Amino acid sequence: MQIKAKQGKETQKSVARFVAALFLIFSGLRNAQAQGQIAQPQHAGQVEHRRRIVVSIPHRKLALLEDGKVAKVYPVAVGAKESPSPTGDFEVKTRLVKPTYYHPGKVIPAGSANPLGTRWIGLSTKGYGIHGTNLEGSVGKAASHGCIRMHRKDLEQLFAQVQVGDQVEIRATADDELSAIFGALPEAATSTETMTSAPATEQSSTN
Questions:
Q1: Which of 11, 42, 60, 152 has its CA 20 to 30 A from that of 109?
Q2: Is there a single domain that holds both residue 93 and residue 130?
Q3: Residue 147 a catalytic site member
Q4: pLDDT given for residue 200 in this prediction
């Protein structure tokens, strides 16, 4: 009888351990599920903003649009008559801090003499981008080799807000949308300048 009693107690202990283990597993699953339910709304609540950069050659301005609304407008330099900026739809392909300037027979590292300034936003057309300048006085003019130049502070602010894949539009003809974004054309913009553009092909210069 004593042997049977001992065996019975051992069986009861084994059953108790098994039940306790099941309880711990069940509790862990419930906690994990609860945490997943809490985390899911936070992830679902994150809104992905749609950004678009619009450059108006005749206005010599750039606008950052977020979710269809104008977030900021900046003055820019566009391509000179002999080296016009390309027009069309592009996207941001690269983002570089303190870029090195490369030109046939010339390499200029980051610094005050660098024609690209402190940031480079490369477009999907090779050789073209949005960048700074070591000639601040050129901003607001048709003075570049096709790229879009910006003041240093403006560029660094824009750089922090855009990402690879964002859309970029460079437009040469004023229309209702450009007028709504940038206002009336400046008096200096002539019909010839308004139509100035280049095909979306590589140029030898990157500024």
A1: 60
A2: yes
A3: yes
A4: 39
Positions of the chain with pLDDT lower than 70, given as ranges: 1-49, 188-206
DSSP secondary structure letters along 112-127 = TT-TTTTEEEEESSTT
The single residue of 43, 49, 59, 131 carrying the catalytic annotation is 131
CA–CA distances in Å: residue 179 to residues 58, 76, 123, 141, 153: 11, 17, 24, 19, 25
Domain-ending residue, one of 14, 31, 46:
46
For residue 198, give the nearest of 170, 169, 167 by alpha carbon: 170
Where would I find the H helices in the chain? 2-44, 152-161, 176-182, 191-195
Q: Where in the sequence is the domain holding 28, given as residue range(s)?
A: 1-46
Q: 97-112, pLDDT tens digit by residue?
A: 999 999 889 999 999 9
| Token pair recorded at residue 3 | 């042997």
Q: Total structural domains in the chain?
A: 2
Active site residue 131: yes
Catalytic residue among 59, 145, 147, 151: 147
Residue 160 belongs to a domain with what CATH number?
A: 2.40.440.10
Answer yes or no: is 137 within a domain: yes
DSSP labels for 162-204? --TT-EEEEE-S--HHHHHHH-SPPTT--HHHHH--B-S---S
What is the pLDDT at residue 186?
A: 81
Q: How far apart are alpha carbons 87 and 168 in whole angstroms?
A: 10
Task: Note the pLDDT of residue 22.
Answer: 53
Closest alpha carbon to 55 in 134, 168, 152? 168
